[in-house]
Design brief:
The complex is a heterotrimer of chains A (238), B (240) and C (271).
Chain A lengths: L21 E4 L4 E4 L4 E2 L3 E4 L2 E4 L3 E6 L2 E6 L11 E9 L3 E5 L6 E4 L12 H4 L5 E10 L2 E5 L6 E3 L3 E4 L5 H5 L4 H10 L2 E4 L4 E5 L3 H16 L6 H11 L2
Parallel strand pairs in A: 3-7, 10-12
Antiparallel strand pairs in A: 1-6, 2-5, 4-5, 6-7, 8-9, 8-11, 9-10, 11-12, 11-13, 14-16, 15-16
Helix pairs in contact in A: 3-4
Chain B lengths: L1 H5 L14 E5 L7 E7 L2 E12 L12 E8 L14 H14 L11 E11 L4 H15 L8 E4 L2 E3 L2 E3 L4 H4 L7 E9 L5 E7 L7 H27 L6
Parallel strand pairs in B: 4-5
Antiparallel strand pairs in B: 1-2, 2-3, 3-5, 6-9, 7-8, 7-9, 9-10
Chain C lengths: L7 H12 L15 E5 L7 E7 L2 E12 L10 E6 L16 H15 L10 E3 L3 E13 L4 H14 L2 E2 L16 E2 L9 E8 L2 E4 L3 H6 L2 E10 L2 E10 L6 H25 L1
Parallel strand pairs in C: 4-6
Antiparallel strand pairs in C: 1-2, 2-3, 3-6, 5-6, 7-8, 9-10, 9-11, 11-12
Helix pairs in contact in C: 2-3
Chain lengths: 238, 240, 271
């Protein structure tokens, strides 16, 4: 089962990174001082200064100052692939816990094939796990869909959580990191943008190893050359 | 004037000197953000959970998230055991702490949700609400919640005629001359915005600016400690 | 941290893992996580301790109070164990009146201590019929990564071991200004320890992480201590709707004395 792959802009040291410095900043802290700079996400302008509006890694990308969250809640966006657990069944669909501040709902029409209303719990029962895409994000909640490649009910394996802001680096540029882990462990892995990850392997040992590899990557806070480090980790742990 | 400057504090501190500060982030791994802050022997732990779904639904605010603070003393944190369960004092402190923190947090970014802040005092030697606010401020930032600034809090006050910083329990009980005054404040670290102000005792109106001077100076030191504690989570001594 | 309930597929996978004797953190099914104990973590308490088992952390404080004895035990002091599952420690706990788990925790810790004889209640009598000591144990989980009950019980024992008897003034009230001279009178040999065995499928495990604990179907907690040179069970409580088999109980009876020795040794190291 293929997972949706998202581009991970900051998992890479940009080629012209001589001016791309990173600095850990706290809310209210001045990042740079200068009229030429532009406040990007997570920052704001105060007079001539660009100031942090969050705890994170401030980065210069040309004239724009951006702040990357190191910690922080999952902010649901349309087209995000998420992993969730069925928490309830209503006549109209399934309530899904996607571990976010908004509740999520999978309407019966959004299942991949036609499901009869009296068969709903046979298809998805409470406690079952799905890989779904966020279709709409409204004030009152999120609607999900299972229509799409790689989406649907997940069988066997297990799910576990990492901090959502670490998801891009676990996926890697064009999926390079998660693919490396998949190859080395021969496991299927789906990474949800909400920080939940599903792994299914050929044996318990490989499943445990794949989880450890993911956690190894997720727990490194601020490290370059991650790919080499992961390959070295696999060498040591084979 | 001479009397005030000669005032000797019980623990030998200078008039504008706070007790030794300890600040640490990440003390409750389950929480989205957590921190510990101590003024001398007063130790506060704060844990932040959220933003998360708020039940019951009718309490949700469609325009912004709700900050919900619960402050309490652990039963054994004081000499006379405090019975479990929030007292009126705890409820009041919970509310003023909420008002102290809210201006710094971008709640509009999370409508219909709640951010729960839990503050517990492990050891109480006066200044518990200020220690709690300092811990909560770090915990909120640690949780990655969008914040305009950190909040710093300290309780300067007065013993007799001397204006002093960060009263300990003994100083709170001082009863000579003009007695003891406790003047707790909290402010945004980098702004001229006071979000908490509570006072008990006797102080002449014209002397309040001395309190604010000390508070501002102390808050700079507190902000430095909070910054350091947060940054240490990312760059611990001996990188991971 | 997540409040998402355990999923069916994770539970099935854990069942298979345990059946193969495997756990995510590499431990054996009956291996305990690293234990750390720190004393005197709260100075205004008469005794206190912080226990860490892996990421699970519990703080326990002891307060001594004086008062009149119960009418049916005029020459004995009292023990009260109190505690709550504060929302601080887990996204699972909710504010408000205590749920069953919150009520159960202090009661389980209490029973293991009370029945063991560790505290000689007669030694807590100050003046028969008039004035006795009450030992109050307050348990505060700080971070729940599973097995809070056993961690709390170790914390309670450690806090009690370090507790002092405050000095009294002439009118029978506690004088905190006076330096305490005596320790809380405790048995030197009896140290009750609680062991909670969790069952998933046919496997029994000890010291689960929160993830493991939430997948498990049944729990049985035993308190055990040394008494007169023998190991004695002092308390027992089974939790949950699913049944235990007799062979489960007999297996536990074989395991528990060895585990008791193991933890006892570790505790002695910290004393």
């Amino acid at each position: 089962m293929e997972n949706e792959i998202k581009e991970a802009p900051e998992a890479v040291n940009k080629p012209n990174s001589s001016s791309s410095k990173r600095k850990v900043v706290v809310p209210g802290e001045t990042i740079v001082d200068g009229e030429d700079y532009l406040p990007g996400e997570g920052t704001r302008r105060e007079g001539s200064k660009i100031v942090a509006s969050k705890f994170g890694l401030a980065e210069e990308a040309g004239r724009v100052i951006k702040l990357i969250s190191i910690f922080g809640a999952f902010v649901p966006r349309r087209n995000n692939v998420v992993i969730g657990r069925v928490s309830d069944i209503t006549h109209a669909g399934w309530l899904i816990d996607i571990d976010s501040a908004s509740s999520a709902f999978l309407p019966i029409e959004e299942s991949p094939r036609f499901i009869n209303r009296n068969e709903m719990d046979q298809y998805l029962a409470i406690g079952d796990v799905i890989s779904a895409k966020i279709w709409t994000v409204k004030g009152k909640g999120i609607d999900l869909t299972l229509k799409g490649k790689g989406l649907g009910k997940l069988e066997n394996g297990f799910i576990f959580r990492i901090i959502p802001s670490r998801v891009p680096r676990v996926i890697g540029r064009e999926g390079s990191m998660v693919n490396l882990i998949k190859e080395r462990t021969d496991c299927s892995i789906t990474v949800g943008q909400n920080g939940w990850i599903w792994i299914r392997g050929q044996s318990i040992e490989t499943e445990i190893k794949a989880r450890k590899a993911v956690e190894f990557v997720a727990n490194k806070v601020h490290v370059s050359g991650l790919t080499e480090k992961v390959e070295a980790w696999f060498e040591e742990n084979d | 004037m001479a009397t005030k400057n000669e005032f000797k504090r019980v623990d030998g501190r200078k008039l504008d000197e706070m007790r030794a500060i300890t600040a640490k982030v990440g003390v409750v791994p389950n929480a989205d953000g957590s921190a510990m802050f101590a003024f001398g022997d007063t130790v506060a732990i704060a844990a932040v959970y959220g933003p998360r779904l708020l039940h019951p639904q009718h309490m949700q605010n469609p325009q912004k998230g709700i900050l919900r603070v619960a402050y309490d003393l652990m039963s054994f944190s004081v000499y006379e055991r405090k019975r479990p369960g929030p007292s009126r004092r705890s409820k009041e402190i919970s509310k003023v702490t909420e008002w102290a923190l809210e201006p710094a947090v971008d709640l509009k970014a999370f409508p219909n949700t709640v951010i729960d802040v839990q503050i517990y005092i492990l050891q109480a030697d006066a200044g518990t609400r200020t220690a709690g606010i300092n811990a909560a401020s770090m915990a909120l930032a640690h949780a990655g919640i969008p914040m305009k600034d950190l909040i710093c809090s300290v309780a300067p006050g007065k013993n007799g005629q001397a204006i002093i910083s960060d009263l300990n329990k003994e100083e709170e009980d001082y009863d000579e001359g003009e007695g003891a005054t406790d003047f707790a404040v909290a402010k945004l670290a980098n702004q001229d915005e006071y979000t908490l102000m509570q006072m008990d005792g006797k102080i002449q109106p014209e002397r309040v600016k001395e309190i604010l001077d000390i508070a501002e100076k102390n808050c700079e030191t507190i902000y430095d400690a909070q910054k350091k504690a947060l940054k240490e989570v990312v760059n611990p001594e001996g990188k991971k | 941290m997540s409040s998402m309930k355990v999923s069916n597929l994770t539970k099935e996978t854990l069942k298979k893992m345990f059946a193969e004797g495997k756990r995510f953190d590499g431990r054996g099914l009956l291996d305990l996580r690293d234990l750390e104990i720190e004393y005197n973590v709260s100075k205004k308490a008469e005794g206190s301790a912080r226990v860490r088992m892996g990421k699970t952390e519990v703080v326990v404080g002891i307060k001594m109070e004086v008062g009149t004895p119960y009418s049916d035990s005029p020459n004995k002091g009292n023990l009260m164990v109190s505690g709550d599952l504060l929302p601080l420690a887990s996204p699972r706990y909710e504010a408000g009146p205590p749920g069953f788990n919150a009520i159960e925790l202090p009661r389980l810790v209490d029973r293991a201590i009370r029945e063991s004889g560790m505290i000689d209640f007669e030694k807590l009598c100050i003046k028969e019929g008039e004035l006795v000591w009450t030992v109050i144990v307050d348990v505060y989980p700080i971070n729940d990564d599973g097995n809070i009950i056993d961690a709390s019980s170790i914390g309670a024992i450690a806090a009690l071991q370090s507790a002092i008897l405050p000095e009294l003034s002439e009118d029978g009230k506690i004088d905190y200004e006076k330096e305490a001279k005596n320790k809380l009178p405790l048995s030197k040999t009896i140290m009750p320890i609680s062991f909670s065995f969790f069952k998933l499928g046919d496997s029994l495990i000890l010291d689960p992480t929160r993830e493991e604990e939430e997948a498990c179907e049944t729990r049985i907690t035993f308190g055990i201590s040394d008494w007169n040179g023998q190991k004695m069970l002092n308390s027992c409580q089974k939790k949950g709707e699913l049944p235990l088999k007799r062979e489960d109980v007999e297996k536990i009876m074989e395991i528990i004395p060895k585990k008791f020795e193991e933890v006892n040794k570790k505790l002695k190291k910290f004393l």
